[in-house]
Design brief:
The protein is α+β, with helices and mostly antiparallel strands. Helix content is about 35%, strand content about 25%.
Length: about 300
């Protein structure tokens, strides 16, 4: 190809327009103009508003993944905080429940002790406050042990009562503890009085269908359901007037000579915690006077001498 026919113009990629300095000056002047115009004339505000309105959905769309990640982290942290707060609340609730149970137990114990303190001044016999330690292991008897014994002036056969009435009687005394046989025991017996009829009888424990019963009561005896039986005081052990039991059923048998009288003890043996041990009345009674010495027989006269 002849050299004269070649196109010597540079390709578009290598074409040079305005110089860099010219472009810098132009755009710098344009920027200064726009800033002055925006500051003075507020000409760019509508444009900025339009652009912000158009780009807002795009910003929301682009910000959604970021918000999701940050919100998920906050949700997980909040869930963890909620679980920790729940565990702390459950632990605090357990502490409060234990404290509530202890307070209720102390209130109940305080009520029983107040009842005993009100009962003690009304008794004219000496008494010792005691606490039930445990129940005897014999399944065929109803006996408990208390924390007062011979060292505390507890005597054998001492009555044991609480604020509701007679609980039982001391049947064994140890130096630091005592065994109490409850009224519901099969070997227990106590003389009682019906204040309504002034009739005396004996109540026994270990009944088949009820904890106590009146035995050897005539079929026509004046006893009714609802009668409250108290200690008669004729045995020299129990002070008179202490509640013993309540009549809950009277079965009169026409073919037999005795009525079957079922009793419910006034003082429940279950749940008894504090009791009073009374000194038997027989120990407080004055000693019987000693019998006077018989006068000496006069000396017989000697035989007359013959």
């Amino acid at each position: 190809m002849p050299l004269g026919t070649l196109d010597r113009t540079p390709p578009p990629f290598f074409r040079q327009g305005y110089s860099a300095v010219t472009k810098l000056v132009f755009f710098s002047a344009l920027a200064v103009f726009l800033m002055v115009a925006d500051a003075r004339l507020k000409v760019v505000v509508p444009l900025r508003t339009a652009i912000a309105t158009v780009l807002h959905p795009v910003e929301v769309t682009l910000r959604a993944p970021v918000d999701l990640v940050l919100g998920g982290g906050d949700y997980l942290r909040g869930l963890q905080n909620a679980l920790e707060a729940e565990n702390a609340a459950r632990a605090q609730l357990a502490v409060q429940a234990e404290r509530t149970a202890r307070v209720e137990r102390l209130e109940s114990e305080n009520t029983r002790l107040r009842s005993l303190l009100q009962l003690q001044p009304s008794l004219s016999v000496r008494s010792v406050a005691a606490e039930v330690l445990y129940e005897a292991g014999d399944p065929f008897s109803r006996k408990v042990f208390i924390n007062r014994g011979g060292n505390h002036q507890v005597k054998l056969a001492s009555p044991v009562i609480n604020e509701a009435g007679v609980v039982g009687q001391v049947t064994r005394v140890y130096p630091l503890s005592s065994e109490v046989t409850l009224l519901a025991d099969k070997d227990a017996a106590i003389p009682v009085l019906n204040p309504r009829t002034q009739q005396r009888s004996a109540a026994f424990g270990g009944a088949v269908t009820a904890p106590m019963e009146l035995r050897f009561m005539a079929s026509n005896a004046d006893v009714e359901a609802g009668d409250v039986l108290v200690t008669s005081g004729v045995d020299g052990v129990y002070p008179p007037g202490l509640p013993v039991a309540k009549v809950i059923e009277v079965a009169r048998r026409a073919e037999g000579g005795f009525a079957r009288v079922t009793l419910q003890p006034a003082a429940s043996a279950d749940g008894v915690r504090h009791v009073l041990v009374l000194e038997p009345l027989g120990l407080q009674m004055p000693a019987p006077p000693e019998p006077e010495a018989a006068p000496a027989a006069p000396r017989g006269k000697g035989k007359a001498k013959p």
